[in-house]
Write a structure and sequence with these properties.
2 copies of one chain form a homodimer. The first copy, chain A, has 349 residues and is an alpha+beta fold. Chain A contains 12 helices and 13 strands. The first copy, chain A, has 3 domains: 90 residues, Hypothetical Oxidoreductase Yiak, Chain: A, domain 1 (Orthogonal Bundle), CATH 1.10.1530; 168 residues, Malate/L-lactate/L-sulpholactate dehydrogenase, NADPH binding domain (Ribosomal Protein S8, Chain: A, domain 1, 2-Layer Sandwich), CATH 3.30.1370; 33 residues, 2-Layer Sandwich (Wheat Germ Agglutinin (Isolectin 2), domain 1). In chain A, the strands form 4 sheets. A 7-stranded mixed beta sheet of chain A has the order 2-3-4-12-5-8-9, with helices on both faces.
């Protein structure tokens, strides 16, 4: 069962839950906004669904609410921070803001963050930069949950990669994990008794399958584009560790203290109006988007969208009609807000 | 039929062919090296196979051998060049060298290039930066040759995206186009009478197929990861145009003067030893690569490789046993070297 909750009502409850779990008023407000915005954008898995697990991580000490980004080194357009296992969202917002400050000064700004925690929806920080008028690129390394191409055991993180293009009509945002489907999506299809639209992994016999349950059993989710997503995942892992002088995916595996705990994150901001006027650049981008959106659809009444365009529609609908949330998840958040910190994670992973 | 030609012999012939087509001795030497190295690395499509078409483009005036990169604007760690439709390879090498110079000064360096021409193998410049000891990121926008997800007509470029990680034992290099298979690969499978290992596009009825000829007929190659490769392709196009203040893919379509003519290219270099010692960083990278390579294979006698590792093996073999080249292609290059500039492109696209 799903409920529809208006933004302000959701915010009051989530803030209270986060305050109860030990966050400061400012941390609770920022994190409530980011989680609720993700759900409002249609990304429930890392939005409201994730609140109970986040609270659980705080209780376990895997997220340190007193940890703040500490500048370790800097050179020119690059800064490197230690996140001290602080809150993933506030650490990442801080670093994306710093990347934009550096971009104002140097044209491009790059902030590399190590020892941080789960940043929730991958696209949040690229969206944030685009909404502030910058082009944003970001990625992360995570624990191994996907087999590399040619292997049958988890060997690399499903590391998301994001690029956001600022546009007055709404940013164009790539927010892309390296697997064809997230584990959460497999669960959604399985619970609905459906097969996947395309094969999403291997079964225990090593055959490609569109049966979500068979993939959950084998833990062999498929990299997007087979060898391509596998190659990109391992290179993003290495790039993040190198740039942040921090953990690689295997170090995160070995720490065994929750998803993304101790990971590296990269934030690159670029000033879009360095070389062209705002009018020129916006007109170029609009022409490109309009051309893409008006290519001939492959189905009658079909329509081609650029990444992020449908998100804006979902967001508008959520703001007017309320944000969709699973009833069990919402009851659990309300229980936390009422002071019950005994967490059982009822959300999909 | 294929021949095996030793590097130095290949270089003499290719240099002569390029001199005949109007390149300066320095241009001919650099371009000969890059084309032959691509073939030596196993990427024949953009190596020796591409020489006749390149010479043809020069004859048609689509590549201007007198065009050189001109600095248009600069700010901090970013420089923007106009390539004046000069030789794609020399323009791109110049810009990747400049990106490394900027990285030395600012930690990160970003060079954006507009109005340039085909750079041949996408990975060349990221490989170049990694071999010089920098982490490199590069991408390009190209003419529309792939349908966006949800469309049945070409609407976006098959824009390659590359990341290279410097490593003493050999760089780890992602060199990834956005389609599951290149058109060249479809032709190879069709000529061999084989089906593709996985579906690579749609037939004229709109059904996913592994029949390479059916995809060549429909021109509906499949983006890697379906909607994912489509989304990444359009965002890379916009990012390149925005950063270089240059053409988007649709402008390149409209110019109708050959593949990539007038495109934008982005070169980002990062100093890998900004925050960690060379020893620490190399040890981190080696541990990551070794862990990936030793994950359990999905087939008996299988082996997992990181991207670039097999390329190094192919390169070594080519340097000792000679470089594989299609006999028709080689005869055509020899004819150009003998002064016959009447080009019929016999290579696969």
């Amino acid at each position: 069962m799903s409920l529809n909750i208006m933004y302000d009502e959701a915010k009051k409850t989530v803030e209270k839950a986060l305050l109860n779990s030990g966050l400061s008023p400012r941390q609770a407000e920022v994190c409530a906004d980011i989680h609720i915005q993700s759900s409002a954008d249609g990304v429930e898995s890392h939005g409201l669904n994730r609140i109970p697990r986040f609270v659980d991580y705080v209780q376990k000490g895997w997220v340190n609410v007193s940890g703040n980004p500490e500048l370790k080194c800097a050179k020119g357009a690059v800064e490197n921070y230690d996140g001290h296992l602080g809150i993933g969202i506030t650490n990442a917002l801080f670093c994306s803001d710093r990347a934009m400050e550096l971009a104002k000064e140097h044209g491009i700004g790059c902030v590399t963050l190590k020892n941080t925690t789960h940043w929730m929806r991958g696209g949040t920080y690229a969206w944030h930069m685009a909404e502030k008028g910058f082009m944003g690129i970001s990625w992360i390394n995570t624990e191994s949950c996907m087999p590399l191409w040619g292997s049958d055991e988890p060997g690399v993180g499903n590391n998301p990669f994001c690029i956001a293009i600022p546009r007055e009509e709404g940013p164009i945002v790539l927010d892309m994990a390296m697997s064809q489907y997230a584990y959460g999506k497999l669960g959604t299809y399985r619970l609905a008794g459906k097969t996947l639209p395309f094969p999403g992994g291997f079964d225990k016999d090593g055959d490609l399958t569109d049966d979500p349950g068979a993939i959950e059993d084998s833990m062999r989710i498929l990299p997007m584009g087979y060898w391509k997503g596998s190659g990109m995942a391992i290179v993003l892992d290495m790039a993040a560790a190198l740039m942040a002088n921090g953990n690689s995916g295997i170090d995160i595996d070995n720490a065994n203290s929750g998803s993304c705990t101790g990971c590296c994150q990269i934030f690159i901001a670029y000033d879009p109006y360095l070389f062209g006027s705002k009018e020129e650049i916006q007109s170029l981008l609009n022409a490109r988007v309009n051309a893409a959106d008006s290519t001939h659809p492959d189905k009658e009444e079909g329509h081609v969208y650029c990444p992020g365009e449908r998100t804006m529609n979902t967001r508008k609908k959520s703001m007017s009609d309320g944000i969709t949330v699973n009833e069990n998840v919402w009851n659990q958040i309300k229980a936390i807000a009422d002071g019950n910190l005994n967490i059982t994670d009822v959300s999909s992973k």
